[in-house]
Every structure is written in C-alpha cells, then in structure tokens.
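Schema walk-through. Below, the input block comes first and the output block second. Nothing else is stored per chain. Lengths vary across the set, and this one has 148 residues.
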Amino acid sequence: MEIHASAVILLLILAASFTANGQPDDIKPRYQKFLNQHLGPHVNEHACDREIRNRGITASGTTNGCKEVNTFIQANKKDINVVCGKGGTPQGNNLFKSNQRFPLVTCKLQSGQRHPNCKYRGNKSTRYIVLGCDRGWPVHYDEGITNA
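--- output ---
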C-alpha cells in the first residue's frame, strides 16, 4: 500500500486545525464541572435528590455541604455551548444571556442534615439562561440572575 504525500499533508492539516479549534487544557476541568452540575437533558423535577447525590454536587464552605439551589438545563451540549457565542448576548463580566429560552429543572434545598442526605424539591420552567464563559466555553451557570 502506497501513501501519497497529498494524503499525509491533508492529515497534518486536519490534525492542526482540530488542535487549534479544540478546548484549552485549563478550561477542560471547569467545563466538565459545569456539565456535571448543569447539563440535564433528561432530568425531571422529581429526580433532584438522585441527580444531585449521584453527581456529587455539593456546596463547599457550608455547614452541611448541601447546595441551596442547582439548575439543570434540559438541552444538549451543543445548544448550551452556543450561548457563549452567536447564541448569546454579552452582559459584561464574561456573562452571556441566551437568545432563546431553555427548559430548566431548578432544584431547591428543602432540608438536609449533611451531604449526601440533602432533600430537594424540583420545579420546571422555561427561561433565558445566563452563563459565565471563558474563551467561548460555558464554565458557570449564574443562579443569581433570573430572566423571564
């Protein structure tokens, strides 16, 4: 089998463009944490306790380790990622408001002595989301900003 020089050049160009457009190494852990805490295309409002426990979502710096509020975005990664680019409007401080509404499940802490025994109540809604972005990648969901 003979390998043509043009095929090798094409492979090198593809590899270089993939690396150039890939995610920076320092963003990967923050992006993965964001996905773990907020990506929930199949999460429903009755699954808050299970999802938060199974994903190990906690709040450091609290006495019981239970996170007060956690929101799951019921969309795929591609639709969420676009908010940090053409699908979002800059709000300042690296925050972007989505140009479209997203279905959400918001889990609010009802009780809990200590993690992992946190009890949540879920609520479904559809609203614009505000994400903290770093070089085009979502790394934070802003729970503090509620948009109609």
